Amino acid sequence: MLDHQKVCLYQKFKCPNRCFEKDPENCPIEKSFGKDLENHLKVCPFETELCQTCGLGVLRRRKAVHNCFKEYKKLLVNQENEVKYLKSNYGANLDI
Fold first, then answer.
1. Half-sphere exposure of residue 36, counting CA atoms within 13 Å on the CB side?
2. Alpha helices, DSSP H only, in 8-90?
């Protein structure tokens, strides 16, 4: 019986993206049946998809305004800041 409960399509599940907590007006499914969850995830605005151009994960709701260049620039700046932090706090020789 426990195995059935784990896969039962009529058991209620919360969206794994927690969309209801983040934006209840645009994603009004607080709990849905397992059979509906798959369909919900196909349109959930908080589901992550890979950008076909740069390969980064992008929230579906941000896909239309996603800018590959800006996102990679942010990643680079974050990595540079992390290297500076490690050097200043640990004296690490992290020259690449």
1. 12
2. 19-22, 34-43, 68-90
